[in-house]
Amino acid sequence: QVPDSFPPLRNETAVHVLRGRMKGIQGHCNSCYMDAALFSLFSCTSVLDSMLFKPFPLCDRNVQSILRDEIVNPLRKTGFVRARSVMHLREQLTEKGQCSSFTNAEKDPEEFLNLIMHQILGIEPLLKLQSGSQEEQQDCYCYQIFMDKQEDLVVPDVQQLVEHSFLTYDLKLVEIPSCFIIQMPRFGKEYKMFSKIIPSLELDITDLLLDSPRECCVCGDVATLECS
């Protein structure tokens, strides 16, 4: 356990601490979905550090301390988290989530995030989505990319995938999210839609926002119509 707090890793420090053998989060017993999610959420960004410290209304302080002292702080200090620490968290999730398979089965990352953010820590949803002309709003914690095979996208970047997915399902962001967690397309061991996906270091969500003023691509004035 590392009870002291450590900031997220940046630039050359991140490379030095995280690169090499015995680095990252040690996998064990189908933990890959959780290992990858935790690494993405905490290794190099502080956007969700409120999960580690803030006493939310429904917050389970035991789960919060395991997440902070046994996973995030060791990852940021030494670049390595042992499988036992993640298993400790999985055991707590099994106990709190009424699901007996969190300690041995592979889950969807969205299921893990919903459980720990909503049921255990009581965090407000991070994303507000609206579909087409419907007034009904969908609140969620992450966005999973679903899309049909695109022949022109051989090695896409994240920006392209998000835009294609939002366009396909006629979705818009109701407001700018404080944190935009995106799950890449997954199709198991037998088939993967893309062999590689290039990370977009910045994401332009201008065209994904509902009722956002945008420039007309013909005249340059404020656009009044949108064509998919």
UniProtKB/TrEMBL annotation:
An example GO CC term for this entry is: spindle
For the Peptidase C19 ubiquitin carboxyl-terminal hydrolase domain, which residue ranges apply? 24-205
Q: Does Transmembrane show up as a keyword for this record?
A: no
Q: Which GO terms describe its biological process?
A: protein deubiquitination
Cell location:
Cytoplasm, Cytoskeleton, Spindle
One annotated GO molecular function is: cysteine-type deubiquitinase activity
- Keywords, A to Z? Cytoplasm, Hydrolase, Microtubule
State what protein this is by name.
Answer: CYLD hydrolase
Question: Which organism was this protein described from?
Answer: Dromas ardeola
| Gene from which this protein is expressed | Cyld_0
